[in-house]
Amino acid sequence: MSNGSRPRRLPRLRRLLALATDNWLARGYLGVFAASVPVAFLFPDSTYAMAPVLLTEPLSMMGAVVPFGPGLAEDAGGPAVVVASVVAGAWLLACALVNAAVAGALAHHVRDIRAAGHA
Fold first, then answer.
1. What pLDDT score does 74 carry?
2. Is 21 in contact with 100 (CB distance < 8 Å)?
3. How many CB atoms lie within 10 A of CB 32?
4. According to the model, what pLDDT value does residue 82 have?
């Protein structure tokens, strides 16, 4: 079977993941985000607990518009809190990947401009 006949699955997701992981700036951002998540769980009362939300700032604030999250489901019981926490965590992860892809795209752009200037 040739490559032309095989359907490409999720090409935009692959391109997003490639931009989010293929240079030092994007990987560094994801590393800082990954390090901030356990800190938020280990020290929930400290000022560092908001670090994952602040690191994913532009998109994560859109979650404030949607009336669904761990704070709203606390009175509903255990399973509702778990579902709300998983949805909030998945949203933060998606925001971090988008921010890393933007940082990676900017790093590629700067590299291309520098390469064109030296040519």
1. 58
2. yes
3. 13
4. 77
Q: Which two tokens stand for residue 27?
A: 């990987």
**Kind and range of the H or E element at 51?**
helix 51-55
Retrieve residue 61's tokens.
Answer: 């604030």
H or E element, residue 15: helix 11-21
Q: Quote the CA–CA distance of 47 and 117 in Å, as a whole number.
A: 44
The residue assigned the tokens 């997003």 is 16
**How much is the pLDDT for 31?**
94
User: What's the pTM?
Assistant: 0.77
Q: What is the DSSP annotation of 59-116?
A: HHGGGGTSS-SHHHHTTT-HHHHHHHHHHHHHHHHHHHHHHHHHHHHHHHHHHHHHHH
pLDDT in tens, 35-86: 999 998 898 888 888 888 888 888 888 766 666 555 555 566 677 777 777 8
Cβ-in-10-Å burial (0-12, 13-18, 19+) of 48 comes to middle
